[in-house]
Specification:
It is built from 9 helices and 10 strands. With 272 residues, it is an alpha/beta fold. α2 packs parallel to α3 and α4 crosses α5.
């Protein structure tokens, strides 16, 4: 597997500065944000993405994936982003999200998104890149692995795939739903995200999700990677250090702890 760091929480640093710190931690590469507010802005992608990749490769880091807000083929920056990714030999892209806003609209929303994915597939085939639907808890269409499976029906897995996020999947299916989701989407998985959470209650009957260090959260990582091994996953794993309220140095320190922990989990599974 290839281990990369999601650059979102290092947005205050330049690409070069972020690359230096990511390399120090020991990652293989970077999951680079190419979206509004990201390290590469969509309107500048043709010039800035190749330059960012060149900078990161100069530090010994690869860019096997980028995170975008793309949700449709006819958006202004969709094809320029796909073309730039192809030019930089970045094979995998994360898509944006389709919100589930109102009860009763689910089937209509699924049908609309299926049409949008069919059009996206044609562009991906043209540029020979793959876009991936990210599992995200809450009021998003991709909160359910069952819905993601429907969206991927009839799509060519070479161009449209799944980006599993066991943290979000555990939010929606803490006992066994996350495992069912991995099983269901096993033929489509190209990317995996790593982050964890805990449920916190500050008032009676009111619970909220809070990001937690990997060794303290709810996700059963050894079981997750056992399942990933059983489906033959050997792709890119993006570590998401989405901790709010930390300084850059505190964030990087926690990232190092998380990275050491998760690599230890995976290493222990392969030890006889």
């Amino acid at each position: 597997m290839q281990w990369v760091m999601f650059s979102k929480m290092l947005g205050s640093l330049s690409v070069s500065e972020a690359g230096d710190r990511i390399a120090e931690i020991g990652f293989d590469g970077v999951d680079l944000t190419v979206r509004p507010g990201g390290h590469v802005l969509p309107e500048n992608v043709a010039v800035d993405l190749p330059e960012a990749v060149k900078i990161l490769e100069g530090k010994g880091l690869s860019v096997p994936m980028i995170t975008t807000n793309i949700v449709a083929a006819d958006e202004p920056y969709t094809e320029p982003i796909l073309a730039a990714a192809a030019e930089c030999r970045i094979p995998q892209l994360k898509l944006g999200y389709w919100q589930y806003k109102q009860f009763g609209e689910l089937r209509t929303l699924i049908n609309r998104v299926r049409r949008e994915l069919a059009a996206l597939e044609k562009l991906c085939e043209k540029h020979d890149v793959c876009v991936n639907i990210h599992s995200h808890s809450g009021n998003y269409l991709s909160a359910s692995a069952g819905v993601v499976s429907i969206l991927l029906e009839e799509r060519n897995p070479q161009y449209i795939g799944a980006y599993l996020d066991p943290g979000h999947m555990t939010v929606e299916g803490g006992l066994g739903g996350w495992r069912i989701g991995i099983d269901l989407l096993s033929q489509h998985v190209n990317l995996v995200a790593v982050k964890d959470f805990a449920w916190i209650s500050e008032r009676k009957k009111e619970w909220r999700r809070s990001h937690a260090p990997l060794d303290q959260g709810i996700v059963r990582w050894a079981e997750v990677f056992t399942c990933l091994g059983q489906i033959g996953f050997d792709g890119t794993v993006s570590l998401h250090s989405e901790y709010g309220g930390l300084s850059v140095e505190e964030l990087l320190s926690q990232t190092q702890e998380d990275f050491d922990y998760i690599r230890g989990v995976v290493a222990s599974m392969s030890t006889p």
